[in-house]
Amino acid sequence: MGELMTCTAGTVVAVLRAGAEAVLSHREELVRLDREIGDADHGENMARGFEAVTTKIDSATAGTPGAVLKTAASTLISTVGGASGPLYGTAFLRAASAVGDAEQLDGAAVARALQAGLEGVTARGKAVTGDKTMIDALSPAVEAAKAAAGAGEPPAEVLARAAEAAESGAQATEPLVARKGRASYLGERSAGHLDPGARSTALLLSAFAESARSSR
Amino acid sequence: MSVGLVVVSHSAPLAEGVREVAAQMAPQVRVVPAGGLADGAVGTDFEKVSAALSEAFSDGGVVLLYDLGSAQMTAELAVEALDDPNAGRVVDAPLVEGAVAAAVAAQGGSDLDAVARAAEDAARAPVEGEPVGAPAEPGEVRQEIELTNEVGLHARPAALLARSLTGLDAAVRVELGENEADAASVLSVMGLGARKGDRVVLRASGPDAQQAVRLITELAQRNFDE
After folding, report:
1. What is the pLDDT of residues B115-161, one digit of tens each?
2. Are the beta carbons of A195 and A172 closer than 8 angstroms?
3. Which pLDDT score, from 0 to 100, does residue A4 have?
């Protein structure tokens, strides 16, 4: 058997559960990062939201990948709060729309979903690359995903490349001065810290990739 | 049905306070506060904003005002979740001034576009009144009136004055000394700082100019129903 070439609703459920586990096990780190340049609630908010997602999604009744993503979106919107709730919620909502009611997603569909998520976050938060936000992780992730999908890679590989790029992007937020969100109130003092939103985006994509790879 | 308003704030008391001020100026308008998290903590809650949006909803649509940061995103998301997202409008406006201006416009029967514009224009309303400008136009109606009510052209009288122009096709300026204000803008009229005993000049143009001046003059003679 070679690579698993498509991703089903069950895969999306597994991937999201892995994302939730990653958020929960990094809760303290996210709290610490956000305490340095924000209001210290990112870890708690994300943990609460993704814990709620795991109770709402179920591989037995998953339907389509899009339906699972939509459930995750509305759950995150209702439970995360702050700016992250609307931002992550919008990302998953747009990703859900992008994949429509397809039963299975190939690598290109996964890249399209990530691209739509990025567009949603950009529209909602009105930030651009370099503002020291989650876009600094998500934007390079989308570019890497598109390149991988363009080369015909399967979903797991598309996610793996996206995760790598997101990780580098998140690390690169450290020297930046925040221009959006709560951290922007700190001005120059926001430099020298990782952006919590970029970090959580990288964490999630890395967990998604890991899970997709192991479900081969 | 008049346009409804939703006040989205990180704080429940702040949202309620803004509602209170706006409702005083426009008692018939539905102004619904959506402040704080479900447990009362500081933050914005999507469910709360969505519920407020349903409560404020009317055929005329709803205008949402927000305080800062994530309140805007939460408001936009709640509007996008409506069956008809065009029925909700999130406006970039100063919270208190915008809510007052929007409420007065809604009370006057303005449509969604006009109510949203009234809120947005509140940011540009001159605090001190504008310098007196244009010379008299042909057909302009001028009338000097003395303010005999206790508070002069303060918030409530200014709101009554603006509302008295509802449905009239007339542009009315209020002059005090070297400053003038658009009579339809509550904030602009308040910005004149006209007090009891001041004499202000009304300058109206348009088909309903006579009627507009008559209504305002009567209102002033009734001491703005104080």
Report:
1. 999 999 887 755 444 555 555 667 789 999 999 999 899 888 998 89
2. no
3. 64
Residues with Cβ < 8 Å from B126, sequence gap 6 or more? B181, B188, B191
Under 8 Å between Cβ of B191 and B181? yes
How many angstroms separate the CA of residue B162 from the nearest CA in chain A?
A: 35
Contact residues, chain B, for A181 at CB < 8 Å: 69
- Residue B201 pLDDT: 94
* Main-chain phi, psi angles of B105, to 5 degrees: -65, -40
Which residue out of B3, B5, B6, B10 is catalytically annotated?
B10
> Do B55 and B32 contact (CB within 8 A), yes or no?
yes
What is the rounded distance in angstroms from the CA atom of residue A36 to the CA atom of residue B71? 22
Q: Per this entry, what is the length of chain B?
A: 226
Please enumerate in sequence order all residues whose Cβ is within 8 A of that of B84, keeping only pairs 6 or more positions apart, or say none. none
Structure tokens at B211: 């009627």
pLDDT tens for residues B32-84? 999 998 888 888 999 999 999 999 998 999 999 999 888 999 999 999 989 99
Selecting from A81, A86, A90 the residue whose C-beta is nearest the C-beta of B37 gives A81
Task: Kindly report the pTM of this predicted structure.
Answer: 0.78
**How close is the nearest chain B Cα to the Cα of A195, in Å?**
17
Indicate if B154 belongs to the active site. no
Q: What is the phi-psi region of residue A192: left when phi exceeds 0, alpha when psi lies from -120 to 50, beta otherwise?
A: left
**Distance from chain centroid for Cα A17:** 13
**Cα–Cα distance between A49 and A47 in angstroms, integer?**
5
How close B69 gets to chain A, by Cα (Å)? 7
Dist. CA A11–CA A13, nearest whole Å = 5
Helix A135-150 vs helix A196-214: crossing angle, to nearest 10:
30
Task: List, for residues B48-59, the tens digit of each pLDDT value.
Answer: 999 999 999 989
Kindly state whether B11 is in contact with chain A, defined as any CB-CB distance less than 8 angstroms: no
CA contacts within 13 A on the Cβ side of B205 = 9
Is residue A135 scored above 50 in pLDDT?
A: yes
**Which of B37, B45, B73 is opposite residue A83, by nearest beta carbon?**
B73
| Partner residue facing B46 (CB), from A85, A124, A125 | A85
